[in-house]
């Protein structure tokens, strides 16, 4: 039994989940069992509307997150660990995963959940399976007259699995409290680099409005995350399969005139750096096994080798 966690803090989030759930309902029902955990921010009340929407797709239950921490990223981290404590209560003997599914993530293949289920069964004893964020470095400005090659290099992003991922149900019992603070996926990345226990899958991927048409035609991608994109425009493009222009905003130019400019997230340059840093490679599950020592062992498995969980168990 898998648990899909839908975290929300506003009516706008619920509106987006309504579109995602309607999209799921239009797809073929997954063969694997799953439920929804509707995780409400401590600043909002559990939504009966979201419960009704989710219950049409699969069994659903509420969680009113108790930890009174707000704002990004610490509020999101508190909601994540509240949700993981909840799913851990019934995790005994359950080999499923908890998918942290934000409102800018959209299934793009009818067998999306069955594909993730197959890959999870193949991944073995891991804590996290998802989209790998690579190390991203940039050269820090020093003095304007210094040559670029002499500027000191600083790490912008450390390698980790993006937060919108599949997690072991008893994750909260597998991770010491020192790694349950900060930005949850970055801190988990610190732990996984030391101890292993993660799987990078090509089935969950970042996408943008500019590259979405290419990603929709990629048979290895089943769940797309429009990180740092306009969420409503991204969902529309995923659901309809049609290109959608990013919204524009007016900007003042000289002599008081205005000119339209595409509205982008101020950190979109970071996403561009992430996508550029990812090396092109054959689609594969890259499994880094959990071990006690500092040495980690990586096993790469072609995506085609993960057809069914029964084949994995027989192997």
From TrEMBL:
Source organism, top-level taxon? Bacteria
Tell me the SUPFAM superfamilies matching this sequence: Nucleotide-diphospho-sugar transferases
InterPro entries per UniProt:
Nucleotide-diphossugar_trans
Protein's UniProt name: Uncharacterized protein
> Which species?
Rhodopirellula maiorica SM1
Lineage, broadest ranks = Bacteria, Pseudomonadati, Planctomycetota, Planctomycetia, Pirellulales
């Amino acid at each position: 039994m898998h648990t899909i966690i839908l975290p929300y803090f506003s009516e706008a989030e619920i509106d987006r989940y309504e579109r995602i759930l309607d999209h799921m309902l239009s797809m073929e029902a997954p063969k694997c069992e799953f439920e929804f955990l509707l995780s409400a921010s401590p600043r909002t009340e559990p939504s009966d509307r979201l419960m009704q929407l989710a219950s049409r797709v699969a069994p659903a239950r509420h969680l009113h997150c108790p930890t009174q921490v707000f704002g990004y990223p610490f509020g999101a981290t508190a909601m994540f660990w509240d949700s993981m404590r909840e799913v851990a209560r019934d995790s005994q003997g359950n080999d499923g995963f908890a998918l942290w599914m934000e409102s800018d993530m959209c299934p793009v293949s009818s067998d999306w959940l069955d594909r993730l289920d197959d890959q999870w069964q193949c991944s073995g004893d891991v804590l996290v399976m998802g989209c790998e964020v690579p190390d991203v470095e940039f050269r820090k400005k020093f003095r304007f007259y210094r040559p670029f090659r002499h500027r000191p290099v600083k790490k912008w992003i450390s390698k980790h699995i993006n937060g919108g991922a599949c997690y072991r149900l008893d994750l909260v019992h597998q991770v010491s409290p020192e790694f349950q603070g900060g930005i949850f996926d970055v801190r988990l990345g610190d732990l996984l680099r030391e101890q292993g226990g993660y799987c990078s899958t090509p089935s969950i991927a970042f996408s943008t409005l500019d590259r979405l048409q290419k990603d929709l035609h990629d048979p290895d991608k089943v769940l797309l995350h429009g990180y740092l994109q306009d969420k409503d425009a991204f969902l529309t493009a995923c659901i309809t399969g049609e290109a959608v222009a990013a919204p524009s905003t007016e900007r003042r130019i000289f002599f008081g005139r205005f000119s339209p400019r595409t509205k982008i997230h101020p950190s979109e340059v970071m996403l561009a750096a992430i996508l550029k840093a990812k090396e092109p490679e054959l689609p594969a599950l890259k499994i880094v096994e959990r071990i006690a020592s500092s040495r980690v062992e990586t096993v790469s498995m072609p995506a085609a080798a993960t057809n069914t969980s029964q084949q994995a168990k027989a192997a």
